Amino acid sequence: MYAVVESGGKQYRVAENDLVQVDLLPQSVGEQVELERVLLIGSETGVTVGRPVIEGARVVARVLAVDQGDKILVWKYRPKQRYRRRQGHRQAYTRLRIEKIVH
Asked: Measured on CA atoms in the order 30, 33, 16, 94, is the torsion positive or negative?
């Protein structure tokens, strides 16, 4: 059984016991999270597609860690103007373990 869920404006295909890295969530490490925007559920019997979400379906996950991604450097440059700016960015992520898919 698998599901397609939406979190942070992005869609993820998940199954039970999967590890998923999503944008930062307000929960802390060890807490349980319910992702309620389930767009699609696939199983042995067939596929259920939501319009846009499936009513009553949810994905239960547990927060394993809160980390940051690799540093991305952003440069601004204007030729012949002596204007150069460098800025770094590290995106914050929440790592989840999918515990069950409730349909």
From this structure: negative
pLDDT tens profile 7-58: 999 999 999 999 999 999 999 999 999 999 999 999 999 999 999 999 999 9
Distance CA 74, CA 86 (A): 6
Rounded CA gap, 77 and 82, in Å?
Answer: 8
Domain ranges of the chain: 2-102
C-alpha dist (Å) from residue 64 to 22, 29, 50, 61, 93: 12, 6, 28, 9, 11
CA torsion angle 14 6 88 28 (round to 10): -80
